[in-house]
What we know:
Blueprint lengths: L1 H18 L6 H8 L9 H7 L5 H7 L9 H10 L7
Helix pairs in contact: 1-2
Amino acid sequence: MKRTMIIGAALGALAAGAAAAQDTTPEAVFGFVDANSDGVLSFEEINEANASVTQEVFAEFDADGNGSLSMEEFANLFTNGPPPPGM
């Protein structure tokens, strides 16, 4: 429960940053956070947008374990929340 609340708060803060652009869709937030426009989000980019996102939280987002978040990984977690424990 605490993990879900932390991740939810982190996503909310990321969306708030994109709100300045008047669009809080996952795609808009992703584009806002993707500072180098390489199509993936690094931990550094996520952490720059929201310093409360820890390595542990980032790893929850990184479903394939490649060290970055694809648009699909980010959108899935942005809209559905983190996977249940043990998945």
